[in-house]
């Protein structure tokens, strides 16, 4: 499995642990990027179909069949991709693809299993980021909650930019603080609040991110 481990290191998939509904979209993005860089993406998209076992060879007026020289390379590349997949699948996921013969079959099987769940999870996390509130929480606890949601969104392949994280923090503050910040931009409270909040946001999302 040395080859598979080297692939997961290149992809950075080892940090994702096993493929699951929570990280499938990110795994898919990383995998597609690597396969494309190796000119192997066609193995899972159908752009590089299984070659015919034989080819016609013409010798003068005679036509005969000979082994297709492209078949061995295609099988070797496909097995390389299969090894990469299997090295990052949980036992449950492995059972779901047991008996499948090609990388494309495994790819489509995983998509069928995880795509709908991952898309639903991403929408749920986006709603949570928009509705998260500081109400009744200490500021440090609230910032940690926002960071957790952003990290979970990142794991689905939906990166949240820094300004999006900060907006999420400001959006969830109590009404009185939000109103002060929104309506009184020249108020010293606004300057102090935004300065402190932005500093805290950058600290939480940069140092611990």
UniProtKB/TrEMBL annotation:
Pfam families: Retrotran_gag_2. This is BnaC06g00350D protein. It comes from Brassica napus (Rape). The gene is BnaC06g00350D.
């Amino acid at each position: 499995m040395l080859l598979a481990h080297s692939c997961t290191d290149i992809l950075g998939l080892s940090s994702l642990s096993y493929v699951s509904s929570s990280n499938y979209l990110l795994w898919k993005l990383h995998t597609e990027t690597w396969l494309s860089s190796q000119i192997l993406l066609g193995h899972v998209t159908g752009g590089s179909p299984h070659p015919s076992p034989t080819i016609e060879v013409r010798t003068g007026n005679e036509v005969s069949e000979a082994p297709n020289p492209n078949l061995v390379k295609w099988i070797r590349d496909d097995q390389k991709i299969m090894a990469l997949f299997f090295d990052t699948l949980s036992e449950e996921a492995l059972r779901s693809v047991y008996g499948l013969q090609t990388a494309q079959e495994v790819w489509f099987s995983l998509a069928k299993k995880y795509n709908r769940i991952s898309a639903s999870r991403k929408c749920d996390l986006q709603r949570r980021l928009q509705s998260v509130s500081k109400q009744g929480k200490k500021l440090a606890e609230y910032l940690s909650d926002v960071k957790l949601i952003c990290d979970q969104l990142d794991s689905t392949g939906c990166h949240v930019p820094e300004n999006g994280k900060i907006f999420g923090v400001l959006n969830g503050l109590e009404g009185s603080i939000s109103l002060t910040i929104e309506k009184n931009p020249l108020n010293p409270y606004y300057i102090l609040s935004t300065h402190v909040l932005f500093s805290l946001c950058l600290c939480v999302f940069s140092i611990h991110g």
